[in-house]
Amino acid sequence: MLKITTYSAKETKEIAYKIGKILTKGTLIVLTGDLGAGKTTFTQGLASGMGITKMVTSPTFTIMKVYKGKLPLYHIDAYRLEGMTQDLGLEEMMDDDGVCVIEWPIFIFDSLPDAYLNVDIKRISDDIRSLTFIPHGKEYEKILEVISL
Ligand code: ADP
Ligand code: MG
């Protein structure tokens, strides 16, 4: 587990950018935190680290958006799925050929595979956020190393 405080949206994006640069296919990142915490902001930095030039926005009208970079980025916002507690069939929804990012305001353990990185974002004040990185599975521990570089 790794806890980091950021003092601007830019700083959050910079951390996510570093992570985006080293991601490999099959990676799953679950972003938790209230509305306005910074989950989409984090995803924007991640995407640019993955070489995606298109602006990542909240998928308001679709459950999942796909962005093309070095690897495809599958971006899911579960905000629209609130109240759904059963298995969403995530594994069928995303291919293993890319990186999957899920914004998940409420954590639903049941629907997730064994290995993934959880980034929990808490709003401290207007510009301050506390980011907690919780790796699940050995391969996800490596990702944390890049953050402190
Ligand atoms: P979510 O997707 O979690 O609902 P967003 O990323 O859409 O949240 O919105 C977060 C808002 O907070 C953005 O307007 C962003 O500019 C702002 N913000 C201010 N400080 C930070 C910070 N340190 N990290 C991330 N976002 C921040
Ligand atoms: Mg969002």
Could you explain how this protein is built, in words?
This protein is an alpha/beta fold. It is built from 4 helices and 7 strands; from the N terminus they run E-H-E-H-E-E-H-E-E-E-H. It has a 7-stranded mixed sheet. A hairpin with a 5-residue loop joins strand 6 and strand 7. The structure holds adenosine-5'-diphosphate and magnesium ion. The site of adenosine-5'-diphosphate has 17 residues, from helix 1 and helix 2.
Q: Brief overview, please?
A:
With 149 residues, the chain is α/β, with parallel strands linked by helices.
List keywords for this structure.
149 residues; alpha/beta; Rossmann fold; 7-stranded mixed sheet; 4 helices; binds adenosine-5'-diphosphate; binds magnesium ion
Architecture blueprint of SSEs:
Elements lengths: L1 E5 L2 H14 L5 E5 L6 H11 L14 E5 L3 E6 L12 H4 L5 E5 L12 E8 L5 E8 L1 H10 L2
Parallel strand pairs: 2-5, 2-6, 4-5
Antiparallel strand pairs: 1-7, 3-4, 6-7
Helix pairs in contact: 1-2, 1-4
This protein binds adenosine-5'-diphosphate (ADP) and magnesium ion (MG).
Adenosine-5'-diphosphate (ADP) binds next to helix 1 and helix 2.
